[in-house]
Write a structure and sequence with these properties.
This protein is an alpha+beta fold. The chain is built from two helices and four strands, in the order βαββαβ. The protein binds iron/sulfur cluster (SF4) (2 copies).
Length: 72
């Protein structure tokens, strides 16, 4: 699914790195490879690939991620 693209600069995805505990789950569940781990914290490396599916938010144990499906 990585090659599916959405509109640029419209995703409602927000990552609060201060809350991230570095579990890496978001990198595993995101079908669009939006995240990579950097210095033991998640980092958004392909923001415009996000399709607001909510999988990362639903799996993040620390509330570091937010998205409003259908907004973008
Ligand atoms: S909402 Fe879905 S596509 Fe967007 S970053 Fe999270 S898991 Fe990936
Ligand atoms: S799922 Fe949440 S806590 Fe885990 S690496 Fe991603 S943002 Fe950080």
């Amino acid at each position: 699914m990585k090659n599916l693209r959405y509109l640029d600069d419209v995703s409602s995805l927000v990552l609060d790195r201060d809350l991230c505990i570095g579990c890496g789950l978001c990198t595993q569940v995101c079908p669009q490879e939006v995240f990579e781990m950097e210095e033991n914290k998640a980092s958004i490396v392909d923001f415009n690939a996000c399709m607001e599916c909510g999988a990362c938010v639903n799996n993040c144990p620390s509330g570091a991620l937010q998205v409003s499906p259908g907004v973008g």
